[in-house]
Amino acid sequence: MANVFSKSSSLLRKFLAVSLLAVLLMIIDSFTPWLKPAYSAVDNFVRPLYWIANIPLRVQEWSANSVTPRSEIESDNLRLTKESLIYHGQLQRMSDLAAENMRLRRLLNATELVQDSVLVTEVIGVSATPLRHTLTIDRGTADGVFVGQPLLDAEGLMGQIIGVHKHHSTALLITDSSHALPVQVLRNGLRSIAEGSADYNRLNLKFVSPTADIREGDKLVSSGLGGLYPAGYPVGTVLSIVSKPGDNFLEVDIDPSAEIDRSRHLLLLYTSRDNTADAVE
Question: Which residues contact 134 (CB under 8 A, 6 or more apart)?
Answer without folding.
Answer: 126, 127, 162, 170, 171, 172, 173, 176
